């Protein structure tokens, strides 16, 4: 059955390419993602039209996973207004995932992690750089590339501890006096973020 | 196929992730030391004009801006 399909397809390829110079890349030239029974049925109904392609036919192939675990992790750390780290090779990063602090080493299992407000530390040899992230996501790929995106990331010494204490007290008070669900949620977010900054400054 | 993951409290209260993320970012910006705080607030200023269209014609534009109009 599969032999039939390729014969039918190659026949139409020859026919199509003789008609026009600018033929689209045929599905057989790209990683074949089409079901052969579908293609055969299509050919019976519409022999002059190319079978429709699926989105995966247009996607670039995934970066290959190296057979041996690389020694370094490549980190891309971006914010909406700047690219903090681009392709930096490091030994380890510790990210504040919503399930807790997660250590990422080269060869980490591919993961998408939602980040909570907390500290991210980048370890390169004995050099450790810490940032406080407001929230974001971390995409860990099979080829030991980590893409970390956050909305705000500040080095710890840019934070004013007195402002944090004031904010914490203010939101705790708002939480106690909140009425609607939305107000409660906003106050809760305030308490969580300020407690996280407090913990970060003292930890 | 129901998901068993608990819904985060902000989503249960009707907030989207983007709203949550922006609120967190604003709170962090408010806790910065002086020169960095002013820079970040300056960076986040927006200025845009919005006009709804009806009958193929733009209606009166609405201006939303963080920069004081001179």
UniProtKB/TrEMBL annotation, chain B:
Pfam families in the cross-refs: ATP-synt_Eps
Record-annotated membrane-spanning stretches: none
InterPro entries: ATP_synth_F1_esu_mt
GO biological process: proton motive force-driven mitochondrial ATP synthesis
A single Gene Ontology CC term: proton-transporting ATP synthase complex
Keywords on record: ATP synthesis, CF(1), Hydrogen ion transport, Ion transport, Membrane, Mitochondrion, Mitochondrion inner membrane, Transport
Gene Ontology MF terms: proton-transporting ATP synthase activity, rotational mechanism
Key word Membrane present: yes
Subcellular location per the Swiss-Prot or TrEMBL entry: Mitochondrion inner membrane
Keyword Transmembrane: no
Subunit architecture: F-type ATPases have 2 components, CF(1) - the catalytic core - and CF(0) - the membrane proton channel. CF(1) has five subunits: alpha(3), beta(3), gamma(1), delta(1), epsilon(1). CF(0) has three main subunits: a, b and c.
Function in brief: Mitochondrial membrane ATP synthase (F(1)F(0) ATP synthase or Complex V) produces ATP from ADP in the presence of a proton gradient across the membrane which is generated by electron transport complexes of the respiratory chain. F-type ATPases consist of two structural domains, F(1) - containing the extramembraneous catalytic core, and F(0) - containing the membrane proton channel, linked together by a central stalk and a peripheral stalk. During catalysis, ATP synthesis in the catalytic domain of F(1) is coupled via a rotary mechanism of the central stalk subunits to proton translocation.
Protein family (similarity comment): Belongs to the eukaryotic ATPase epsilon family.
Name of the featured protein: ATP synthase subunit epsilon, mitochondrial
Species this chain originates from: Arabidopsis thaliana x Arabidopsis arenosa
């Amino acid at each position: 059955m599969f032999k039939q399909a390729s014969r039918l397809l190659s026949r139409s390829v020859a026919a199509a390419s003789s008609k026009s110079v600018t033929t689209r890349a045929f599905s057989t030239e790209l990683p074949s993602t089409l079901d052969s029974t579908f293609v055969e049925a299509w050919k019976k109904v519409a022999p002059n039209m190319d079978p429709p392609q699926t989105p995966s036919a247009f996607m670039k192939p995934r970066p290959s996973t190296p057979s041996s675990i690389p020694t370094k992790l490549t980190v891309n750390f971006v914010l909406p207004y700047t690219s903090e780290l681009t392709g930096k090779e490091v030994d380890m990063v510790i990210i504040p995932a919503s399930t807790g602090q997660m250590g990422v080493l080269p060869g980490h299992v591919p993961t998408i992690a939602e980040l909570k407000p907390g500290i991210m530390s980048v370890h390169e040899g004995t050099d450790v750089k810490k940032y406080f992230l407001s929230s974001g996501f971390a995409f860990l790929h099979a080829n030991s590339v980590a893409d970390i995106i956050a909305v705000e990331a500040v080095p710890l010494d840019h934070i004013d501890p007195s402002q944090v204490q004031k904010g914490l007290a203010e939101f705790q008070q708002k939480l106690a006096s909140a009425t609607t669900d939305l107000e409660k949620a906003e106050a809760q977010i305030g308490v969580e973020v300020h407690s996280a900054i407090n913990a970060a400054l003292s930890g | 196929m129901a998901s068993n993951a608990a819904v985060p409290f902000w989503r249960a209260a009707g907030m989207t992730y983007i709203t949550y993320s922006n609120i967190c970012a604003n709170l962090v910006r408010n806790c910065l030391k002086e020169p960095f705080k002013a820079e970040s607030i300056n960076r986040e200023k927006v200025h845009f004009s919005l006009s709804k269209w009806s009958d193929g014609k733009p209606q009166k534009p609405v201006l939303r801006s963080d920069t004081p109009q001179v």
